[in-house]
Sequence to fold (495 residues):
Amino acid sequence: MKPLHELGVRELANALAARQTSSVEVTEHLLARLQAQASLGVLLASDKEVSLAQARAADARRARGETGPLLGVPLAHKDIFVTREMPSTAGSRMLEGYASPFDATVVANLAKAGAVMLGKLNCDEFAMGSSNQNSAFGPVRNPWDPTRVPGGSSGGSAAAVAARLMPAATGSDTGGSIRQPASFTGVNGIKPTYGVCSRYGMVAFASSLDQAGPLARSAQDCALLLSAMSGFDERDSTSAQRAPQDFHAAMLAARDGASAARPLRGLRVGLPREFFPAALAADVAGAVRAALDDFERLGATLLDVSLPRTELSIPVYYIIAPAEASSNLSRYDGVRYGHRAAKHEDLQDMYRKSRSEGFGAEVKRRIMIGTYVLSHGYYDAYYLQAQKLRRMIADDFQACFQVCDVIAGPVAPTVAWKLGAQGEDPVADYLADIFTLPASLAGLPGMSIPAGAGEGGMPVGLQLVANYFQEGGLLHVAHAFQQATDWHTRVPPGY
Fold:
């Protein structure tokens, strides 16, 4: 058997079922690796006793004859999900030391499936960022090159999976926060259709965009996690009322007319010309085109399509998301919970100082943008116009899906950049989201899969987007690609 940290979710479940190891043994091994690799900055909180108690409970369930693809499998949660047994900060001083009285639904669903919680993972403050440099508790480093960013905001989750510190992790995606770090670190990440995973207990950034999803080493592992994470939740008014989905079974379903040599026969892959602009880095373009050649060899047909409002997705997103953020974050006032300024003269002064001290620079920037676009005289000119364009962007996708089954392209215009490289220019970070924002605004499922390498040997991800509630189809396509390639098995040197 391979070393325990080299086992993915499915492999680990098989080893546990065969009694080749125990959940306690795996949990102890991974906790030790997390401690040894503390310099990556992925972990914000852990509790060995809590983790081992959950592992012992999982082993006891297996001893009683229970089975399950996640029973006894250790993973960790992005610190955007609140947890009863470990602090929840959302990467912010504002919530430092906050102890939630309940678990987020995603956390509870995975616990019910028997997953063991290793800890809470670092992320950009309140999930606002594309580099994981905005965390109040320090940046996360990319295991492929510690001088580079891992992407954000789920950078801690992506880096932890890439460095083989755990087989999988949860993340959240508002404008690309699962897909972009997955691309930058060479792992798989899927953002399901808006409403597939409950947002209850997920610290809100932009409520009409936030969606939970898994990051793992393979499409198969993502399918197993997503099946457990998802499902209708009456406590979330935006939760989709759908029957529980077995995404793993959907992933394995054969296509009509497909064969072992051509498993994607009949698949129509749309390539939006706007996803391949002249500004796209040559190394990224080369890796993506090579991956698309593999798709053709596997039986897929490539079609030219258009998403004409792609460029407009950046201003639309950076109006709508900050507007919702300014509203959601107004609750952090130093009164009920969260950071409270130690010295203040009156109530207004306490509000002002508590928020000034508790929020980081990027969060303050977005609150101010959001407050501005919602203010009298600007609401019609900016916010309402952005909402109209959002509808048009969604319509553009539907026009594409009339002629294709999935849309493919790069996840980001470049590979991961150096830490601090764009620190003085937040707009550069915003522009890096150009290929992930359209699907987020439309509420569509999107996935990043490892597809090649670019400058400096850094990973390059291929983005796949499908129509609403077609996660099974996305995972099927990704799995077929991974049966024929080995990009998803590549490991950062030294890990």
